[in-house]
Amino acid sequence: MANVNQLSINDVYLLLNDLHEQTTGKKSIAPTNTAEFVSMANATLSAGVDSVYNALMQTIGMTIFSSRPYNQKFRGLKAENVRWGGIIRKIVLGDKPLNAESAYHPIDGQSIDQYVINKSDVLELRYYGSNVYQDSYTVFKEQLINAMRGPEELASFVALQTEHMNNKWVQYQEELSRGMLANFIGAKVSLDNGVIHLLSEYNALTGLSLTATDIYKPDYQAPFFRFVRSRVNTISRRMTERSELYQVKITGHDINRHTPLENQKMYLTADALDIIDAMVLTQTYHDDPLRYADVEGVSHWQAIENPNQISVSPVYIGSDGTLVNGDPIVVNNIFGIIFDEDAMAYNLKDVEVSNTPYNARGRYFNTWMTSNVQYLEDLTEKGVILLLD
Length: 389
Description:
Layout: H1 13-24, H2 81-84, E1 88-94, E2 121-127, E3 131-140, H3 151-191, E4 195-197, H4 198-206, H5 218-239, E5 264-269, H6 270-279, H7 289-292, E6 294-298, E7 310-312, E8 315-317, E9 323-325, E10 329-331, E11 334-340, E12 344-355, E13 364-377, E14 383-387
Parallel strand pairs: 4-14, 5-6
Antiparallel strand pairs: 1-2, 3-13, 5-11, 7-10, 8-9, 11-14, 12-13
Helix pairs in contact: 5-6
C-alpha cells in the first residue's frame, strides 16, 4: 500500500486486522509499515500554493494554526527598569578595624577626643553598555486570500505570525540569559572563587573513588544525592552569614556581604534536581533552602547536545577592580549555581513593537521589533559553583 500522505483515501482493513491480531495476542509481533496509516507532517503537497510564500496550499479543508506560547526560562533574572535602567552604580561600604577603647582605659594627663575623623571605606561599582537586536515580519493583505477561507482565517494566520515572533523573541532573551550564566560560571572557575567539587568531597569523606557516572548507579545514587542535598543546605546557610566567603575581594576594601534565603537563587541541573525531589526530599522535611530560595532546574547550561558543559571566554572583575577578559575555558560536570539575586540580572531598557505604514502598491505592512537589553554581573556578590567532579 502507498504512503498515506496523498490526496487519496486508503483502505487499511488488512493492516488494521493485522495490528488487532498482534494486539490481542492471536499473532506474534511482526514488522509493520506504519507509513500506511500515519499522516506525518510534511512540507510538500500536490496542490496549488500561495503566490507570496510559495508554502501555503490553496484552501481545501480545515486549517490548524500550529503555535503555542513559549514559557521563558530564567525569568527570575529579569530586573525592573527603575532599579537597573541607565548607567548603574553600586555603592558598597567596607569594614574598617575597631578603634581603641578609651572610657575604661583613660590615660592620665591626656584628653579623650570624641571628634577623631573616621572616614567610611567606599567602593563604587559601575555598569554601563547594553545590547540591541531587531527583527521583523511582513503581513500581507490580499495576496494570501486564496490560501485562506476568509478574513477570520487570515486574522488567525497573522496572529500565528505574531505569537511565533514573540516566542522567538522570548527565546532570544532566554539564550542570552543562559550565556550570562555561562559567563558567571566560567569567571568563578577561572578565579577559583566559590567553586565546590562535590564528588571529590564525597570521595574524601567516604573513602570511595566514584566517578561522575558512578553516582547514578543504584547503589550510590541515593546516598550521594543525600550528601549533595546536605551540602547545598550548608552552603546556603553560610551565605546568610556576613562575610567575604564566596565573593571576589577588591584589594584594599573589606566588603562583607550576606544573602538571606529569600534573596538566594539556585539553578541546578534538572536531571539531578529530579533525583533530589524523588529520592531525598521525600524522606526529609521541606523547611530548608529549596523551599525558600528561587530554585529552577536547568536542562542545559550552554549547548543542548552537551548539557552539563560550558565553553566560554569570560569577562570578570579583577582584584584591582578593573575588567579582565579571561582566557577560553571549558567547564564540565556542572551541577548548579547558587548566587545572590544582585549578582546577576538583565534589564530590558527599551522594547518597541511598531508597524510601518501600509504599502498601498504592494498591499502589505511590516512589523518591527527592537530591544535594548543590559546584562549585569557582579562577582563581589556571593556566588557558588557546584561541580560533579
